[in-house]
Specification:
Blueprint (H helix, E strand, L loop, with lengths): L3 E5 L2 H13 L6 E5 L12 E4 L3 H12 L6 E5 L10 E4 L9 E6 L6 E5 L2 E8 L2 E8 L2 E11 L2 E6 L2 E8 L2 E8 L3 E7 L3
Parallel strand pairs: 1-2, 3-4
Antiparallel strand pairs: 4-6, 5-6, 7-8, 7-14, 8-9, 9-10, 10-11, 11-12, 12-13, 13-14
Amino acid sequence: GARALGVEYNPNMVELSKRAAAKEGVADKASFVQGDMYEADISRATVMALFLLTDNMRRLTPKLLGLTPGTRIVVNTFGVEGWSAEETHKVEGDCEYWCVILLYIVPARVAGTWRLPQGELTLEQNFQMLSGTLSSGGTSTPIANGRLRGDQIGFTVGGADYAGRVNGDIMAGEVKGSARGAWTATRVRP
């Protein structure tokens, strides 16, 4: 049921790809167009498969981070600078070059301030990694183990483990550990 769209700058490669798809019997599911990858509309993508050099990946990173949280990005050998892959696999056997596959999952955007019944959560975000503090009653407690995987969020504050989902300006989930129960946070807009 999957559908694929390939964007390639070289028109000869586009034709080669079309012929290969027809030969494999997937021409009705895979289409190829000549175009500029930096200008292509990728907003509906749920999976991106890329084999690009580091400079190309660097230039595409803002566009990739703009995709829907949870979108999977699979790249060959040349990763996204500053972004730790969720999974890395090395191809075994006769592989001599370009043998590393990396998986990235687009994280939700959560940087900023969130209001919880327990206080105010301030988050800083570096791709899927989070840091910040929970402030309540004049006391600020740093968060630990802050991480996103798509729209799934998790962090620890003072022995309480928060796990939940991000949906736009709302986060909700369960707390375990020193505190227990449901939690909800709402983004504070300036």
